[in-house]
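Q: For a teaching session next week I want to show students how multiple molecules come together into a single three-dimensional assembly. I've collected the sequence lines for a complex. Could you give me the predicted structure tokens for the whole thing so I can convert them for display?
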Amino acid sequence: MKFSSKIKITLRKSILDPQGKAIEHSLKSIGYDSILDTRIGKFIELLVEADSPEKAKQITDDACKKLLANPVMEDYEFETTEL
Amino acid sequence: MKFSSKIKITLRKSILDPQGKAIEHSLKSIGYDSILDTRIGKFIELLVEADSPEKAKQITDDACKKLLANPVMEDYEFETTEL
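A: Of course. Below is the structure for the complete assembly, covering every listed component.
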């Protein structure tokens, strides 16, 4: 069985996001004054082969912990759906 | 009214994703053979002030088209929720 895992990785709220601030300033400079805050993260899509949805979620979670996200600075959440 | 817009920006399927391939190889080298494909995109969260959900969606869509996404190489989708 194949599963698609869609992972969102964001900087923790307490950590300054200079890339987000830069985009916020750019948006303001082209007239978007109603955008009050901007934060940037990563979006990762994995195609996982596993025997069960639980196993696919386990593999995704392990991959996030070991490689994809930095647990000190980042939070992650993901959704796994069968294809 | 304040709205949160969560935007996912991904490279179009036809476009090679070298960053995704690099992560795929790293995952394989640490033993994750069951991850068959990896694609990387951006995740952007905007805090938008608007009079209605429609207006907030319009602002988000405009910001994606004008600044956040590259319409030639990237696809985007977003969800706007009231806070």
